[in-house]
């Protein structure tokens, strides 16, 4: 059976004024049915651009797919007409955003909003949809009497729960969560993550979890893809990549997590600045920040290659070590 989402050699550019940001530079990514994939990388690495491309929702005129393909359930997203795209968005793929206020309409009660999503994709009466909305709110831990409240009457964590209920309204096959807990307090973050974990267990839908936070990926995902300057530089099972990172960037990300047990050593950090998508270097995009960079790294782009048990790494040093 074809993977649920298959992205091949995807290139995306944003054109603003005279500058062109090369946001994605040959992304290859696969999500299998029922699989949770974490996508991690620094700010500006291209995580949101991957999600928007999969939904064909890049900002018009500014964002352009300049190469590659995206297959959802074996069908080319880039060739879909308006009707098929509408059917895919919401019915098959749902997205949870960082700030739920931006996706909730302040003029409608949360019950009305969730019912509207349900009725857009399923032929149900208003009463039946309201009942389903009530069930969904209960599923995410919100009492049914709050169905008639407006978004501003909820706290940040509760709004994110409403956002999750709306995203689940049509039983999506793929849920994309873009930094869903970044705007929340840590205690609320933990509750939302626990909720997402439970939902994944119960519903067995696929998940693309976009985050800066490696802890979230360790909690929720089976696979992880590390992205740097619009390229996947390491990919594999969470267990393998986290215990045996092979790319210097992944090692840097993992080394930057404070360890509360043992002696308090200085945190490792990745030298230099995040790559500028308008001024990307030749060769390996990470080479200006890499302590092991060679002449070859400055000239050639290392391909993503497998080093056993589905662990992929894009680094010449790995290639030479094997
Ligand atoms: N609408 C836009 N116009 C111009 N450039 C953009 C636009 N959206 C994104 N970019 C650029 O594309 C690159 C990738 O951005 P993207 O938002 O996908 O990164 P990200 O990894 O999701 O970052 P963050 O973690 O900060 O959300 C960045 O260099 C960003 O500045």
From TrEMBL:
Cellular component aspect of the GO annotation: plasma membrane
Entry keywords, A to Z: ATP-binding, Cell membrane, Membrane, Nucleotide-binding, Transport
Subcellular location: Cell membrane
Chief location category: membrane
Highest taxon listed in the record's lineage: Bacteria
UniProt key word Cell membrane: yes
Topology within the bilayer: Peripheral membrane protein
InterPro entries: AAA+_ATPase, ABC_Ni/Peptide_Import, ABC_transporter-like_ATP-bd, ABC_transporter-like_CS, Oligopep_ABC_C, P-loop_NTPase
A matching Pfam family: oligo_HPY
KW Glycoprotein (keyword) present: no
Single GO MF descriptor: ATP hydrolysis activity
Domain ABC transporter: 5-254
Entry's family note: Belongs to the ABC transporter superfamily.
Name of the protein described by the UniProt record: Peptide/nickel transport system ATP-binding protein
Organism per entry: Lacrimispora xylanisolvens
